[in-house]
Write a structure and sequence with these properties.
The protein contains eight helices and no strands. It is an all-alpha fold and 144 residues long. Belongs to the NOP16 family.
Amino acid sequence: SHIRHAWDPAKSVAQNLAEMGLAEDPNKAVPIPKKKMLGMEVESDGREQGGKIIRKPYVVNEMEYEASLPEKKSNTLSRDLIDYVRYMIQNHGENYKEMALDEKNYYQDTPKQIKRKINVYKNFYPEEYKDFIASLKQEKMDVQ
């Protein structure tokens, strides 16, 4: 978005990027130094980047600031997986072998795979899991 706002449609791509201090060709912006061959030194292209004037440095500054912000973690589980795990726990408790034989086990997960999915649910939503288990215990007490 920063580049879009600073873009001048009357200029070429190379001119726009040069004004913002960005490189059109990354290979030319950061040339790879050539290796020494048999004691002789081979020169690089000889192009210098120092001669360009940056007229819109705020674009690079804004992009650097945005890149330095911490990334938000948006790890969530799908609603289907949450419903699947809750159904299995509600009907089978901690019996993973029974869960594997359940008709709702569409993907034919093994007991270990089901246990792993339940543990993932526990780690992602610990408070929700505790409330769910507490509600199951309350239902059992009400039935008895």
